[in-house]
Design goal:
The complex is a heterodimer of chains A (about 400) and B (about 500). Chain A has about 400 residues and is an alpha/beta fold. In chain A, about 50% of the residues lie in helices and about 10% in strands. The chains are: A alpha/beta (about 400), B alpha+beta (about 500).
Chain lengths: ~400, ~500
């Protein structure tokens, strides 16, 4: 179905009832831009109205603030979770459709131009040199799937590949896989972006290019599993790639899914105590998109001495970290405000650390902690698990 | 509006409420120009979010000076087009004013600002006061307690407590000219406990649809949440027996909730719980015009009229519950002898119990009603004229009847879901609603949350002295006619 039809049809089917604005049955805020800026147009229902206005021709993409309202959404799907009327996933689908329309009409915002230029030049979204991509794994003696056959490939993704402050999560992840005896390889500097961010900011051409490239790479390498470090990457590979109609001869798993599986098979044992109280943040793409809620919790509960305390908004009711869908790049202040709201919630549990399983969430929490002078540790699950081995 | 005037007004509004809380950008204005009903959109010139009573006063004084219309707004889900700014002007969005001022457990009332909503109250009960309850409406959690109450909103406990306006203990109102007044015991004492026995000034602001002032605080009565409950639902053939049973049950005051719904088995849409757009193979389900459930149009198959009756019995003890249920059975047997009826699964009636949120309907985008209150003895007679109208316009029958305050009067709500994307269906809904208005008024029922065209019809039909009084009251309180123009008391002069 043409994206214009998706936008037209589903924007007409929103009754503007407002159920999307809070998590039922908690009755707590669900939509970050809505709760930050409060005007109707910042909530999902307002965005669907904007879509309706654009379809009817009473609004145009050139009108003041239209692009901002379209792009200032982390696509966290909290609205879709709450709406009992529109079929799940289709509110964000309309927002994605609006972004594709905007891109087609030349409505690209400067921060997103930077992302696209970076992808075209360096195959990553961070404007980093592509030659540096595999540097995180230097000295690890890992196979490269381009030259050696492996059963499993580990995808670090853009952020873990280039961000020195959080790349430890990638080192710990492959360390755990090796410890469990997994025949794991990487792509090194040949790894490229998953293309998901391009999809999220409406750049379908770029998305398709990376999806096709990655599927063909993994098919040609003959790997049976692609293990993804990043929640966004997982949802893009698992849920978006099938749309490009190339058969995928491999299974896509997030690191926490695979880790949980290895633990349950007895291939990984934790012996060291980690006497700490932690709370877990569900990344939107791992939780609401892919439905993975238990695996990360099962891993944390299997770590000796570690106590997991839940935030009130957890699992499908999680408040977004604020980093997704190009928002961190385009609206950094709002992105950090969103993260700060989550950090406050995490601290209210009495936990000493906030644990997550997505580098984008981790990065944004760390940035917010620095920005607002908070005192809370942030970890990727793999980091804690490695400490306990 | 001229650009210079607009810029001047924006600058002044920003001074009053802060730049972050004023907007005049087109996507923002458009998102306040319409609601879920079939009523025509109208754009405001500004949307303003005050955070305090002083800021509301400032906005109203400015609006008076500039003769700008002001429409108080909380969630915009009133199903009557009540916040569509018929004459442009300022939408006064009150959601920032969402403070809980007082929770008085011993005297069972709550004092809140207009942005405090059903979800906020429900959360408070769930967390801290599980023994207390409110007459929650069949409305989304973002619905304002204040708006619902001052519009004579329905709640599930209406058979016990009446409309939610009947639960008001006190009000604080900013008058259109900017003065702040308090109504009820809070005007002469420190307590917000009661309206009586003072002169009934609350009526100056109830049912007026924001045309006489901006309510900035409200005190509302809370009710017990009983430890024991039993829910029962029946499917009854025929209109008259169902209406009679519900009226009798209302008068017996046996049930905390008793409701009668027209029962139509029409095709429903996809399984919303499992459909996901991204589940591997693309599963984007799109309703096409020729697919069942895609639109609200319904050609009713021949067959008898059927109604579902939902009943909820509550009690403090097992003995009390048992006794009430036994009596309920007696009433049902007595009233339904020689009538065809069956039990419905309890799940059917659960929507009448745990009320929020209001989701789960078809994704059609449009919802409207003629919601009325009137004599329960005339429900059946009215329905016999109403149902053929639904059929004539090929729309699904959607009548709900609920007794209020022991059945002294009751609700007759004619609800219609419609597909916004089909102009023909929207046109039929418009015509149908206007014809329904005539039928209900003729039958003795008065619309609540009435859209402007229904208000105009009532003012046309009404006793001239009543209309004159409305106009004088409106003029007295709102000399420049800035408050939500086109509603009660506005004769267009």
């Amino acid at each position: 179905m043409d994206i214009l039809d998706v936008v037209r049809d589903w924007s007409a089917r929103c009754a503007q009832c407002g159920d999307c604005k809070s998590f039922y049955p908690l009755f707590l805020p669900s939509c970050p831009p809505g709760y930050r800026f409060k005007f109707n147009s910042y909530f999902a229902t307002g965005r669907l109205m904007i879509a309706r206005g654009l379809m009817k021709g009473v609004l145009t993409l050139e009108d003041d603030d239209v692009l901002e309202r379209i792009y200032m959404c982390t696509a966290c799907r909290a609205c879709d979770e709450n709406c009992g009327n529109i079929l799940k996933g289709h509110i964000v689908e309309v927002i994605q459709g609006l972004r594709q329309m905007a891109v087609s009409a030349g409505g690209i915002i400067p921060a997103h131009e930077v992302i696209i230029e970076s992808l075209k030049k360096n195959d990553n979204v961070l404007d980093k040199q592509k030659e540096e991509r595999g540097a995180w794994a230097q000295g690890l003696d890992l196979k490269n799937i381009a030259t050696e056959k492996t059963d499993v490939v580990y995808r670090a993704g853009c952020l873990l590949s280039f961000d020195p402050e959080i790349r430890g999560a990638a080192l710990d992840a492959v360390g755990l896989l090796q410890q469990a005896g997994v025949d794991v390889g990487i792509e090194g500097k040949e790894e490229v972006c998953c293309g998901g961010r391009a999809y999220e900011i409406g750049q379908m051409g770029e998305f398709t290019k990376y999806a096709e490239h990655n599927i063909e790479t993994y098919n040609n390498a003959g790997v049976s599993k692609v293990i993804v470090a990043c929640a966004d990457g997982l949802s893009h590979l698992k849920l978006l790639y099938p749309r490009v109609n190339i058969k995928m001869n491999f299974t896509v798993l997030h690191m926490v899914e695979y880790l949980d599986q290895l633990i349950k098979e007895g291939r990984l044992k934790f012996t060291k105590k980690l006497p700490m109280k932690v709370t877990y943040h569900d990344p939107c793409h791992l939780g609401r998109y892919a439905g993975i809620y238990d695996a990360p919790r099962d891993i944390l509960r299997s770590l000796p001495g570690l106590e997991l305390i839940e935030m009130e908004r957890s699992r499908e009711y999680s408040w977004c970290c604020g980093a997704g869908a190009g928002v961190k790049q385009a609206y950094p202040d709002f992105s950090l405000w969103t993260a700060q709201e989550r950090i406050k919630e995490a601290k209210d549990t009495g936990a000493a650390a906030l644990v997550t399983s997505c580098p984008w969430c981790e990065r944004n929490f760390k940035d917010a902690i620095k920005e607002f002078g908070e005192n809370l540790e942030v970890y990727d699950i793999a980091e804690l698990a490695r400490q306990a081995v | 509006m001229e650009v210079e005037v607009k810029e001047k007004v924006i600058a002044e509004l920003e001074k009053i409420v802060g730049a972050e809380n004023v907007t005049a950008s087109r996507p923002d204005l458009y998102s306040y120009s319409q609601d879920m009903t079939e009523n025509e959109p109208a754009w405001p010139d500004f949307v303003v979010m005050p955070g305090s009573v002083e800021e509301v006063q400032g906005v109203l004084r400015l609006a008076n000076r500039e003769k700008l219309a002001v429409v108080p707004y909380t969630a915009g889900d009133n199903v009557g087009g009540l916040t569509i700014p018929l004459k442009g002007g300022i939408i006064l969005d009150l959601r920032r004013m969402n403070r809980l001022i007082e929770f008085n457990e011993p005297d069972r009332y709550i004092v809140v600002e207009p942005g405090f909503n059903f979800g906020d109250l429900r959360r408070l009960f769930d967390k801290k006061y599980p023994h207390l309850w409110y007459s929650f409406a069949g409305a989304p959690p973002s619905t304002s307690l204040t708006s619902n109450a001052i519009l004579y909103g329905f709640g599930r406990l209406t058979n016990v407590v009446g409309t939610n306006a009947d639960s008001i203990n006190g009000l604080e109102v900013v008058l259109p000219t900017g003065e702040v007044v308090r109504i009820g015991s809070c005007s002469v004492t420190s307590s917000w406990c009661n309206l009586a026995p003072l002169p009934g000034l609350a009526g100056l602001f109830l049912g007026w649809q924001g045309a006489t002032g901006v309510v900035t605080k409200i005190s509302l009565q809370l009710w017990p949440r009983y430890p024991l409950k039993q829910i029962k639902a029946l499917l009854i053939t025929g209109t008259r027996p169902a209406c009679t049973l519900v009226r009798k049950l209302g008068q017996k005051r046996l049930c905390e909730i008793v409701e009668c719904w027209s029962f139509e088995e029409t095709p429903s849409g996809a399984d919303k719980s499992t459909s996901a757009p991204d589940s591997g193979e693309r599963q984007l389900r799109v309703y096409s015009p020729d697919e069942e459930g895609a639109v609200g149009t319904c050609d009713r198959p021949p067959g008898p009229d059927r109604h579902a009756v939902n009943m909820k019995v509550v009690a403090d003890s097992e003995d009390e519950l048992k006794a009430k249920l036994a009596l309920l059975d007696v009433v049902i047997k007595e009233e339904l002898k020689d009538v065809q009826f069956t039990d419905l699964p309890v799940e059917f009636a659960l929507q009448s119990d745990e009320d929020l949120p209001a989701t789960g309907s078809e994704p059609l985008g449009g919802l409207t009603w003629i919601g009325t209150m009137g004599p329960t003895s005339r429900w059946a007679e009215a329905l016999e004229k109403i149902y053929p109208l639904y059929d004539k316009y090929r729309l699904k029958r959607g009548a709900i009847m609920v007794p209020f305050r022991g059945g002294h009067y009751g609700m007759l709500r004619l609800v219609e879901q419609f597909y916004r994307g089909d102009p023909d269906e929207v046109a039929r809904v418009k015509k149908c609603m206007r014809e329904l208005l005539v039928v209900v008024l003729d039958a003795g029922f008065v619309p609540y949350k009435a859209p402007y065209w229904a208000v105009a019809e009532m003012m046309k039909r009404g006793d001239p002295n009543w209309v004159e009084l409305l106009t004088r009251v409106k003029k007295m309180l709102d000399p420049n006619n800035i408050m939500n123009p086109g509603r009660y008391g506005d004769t267009g002069g």
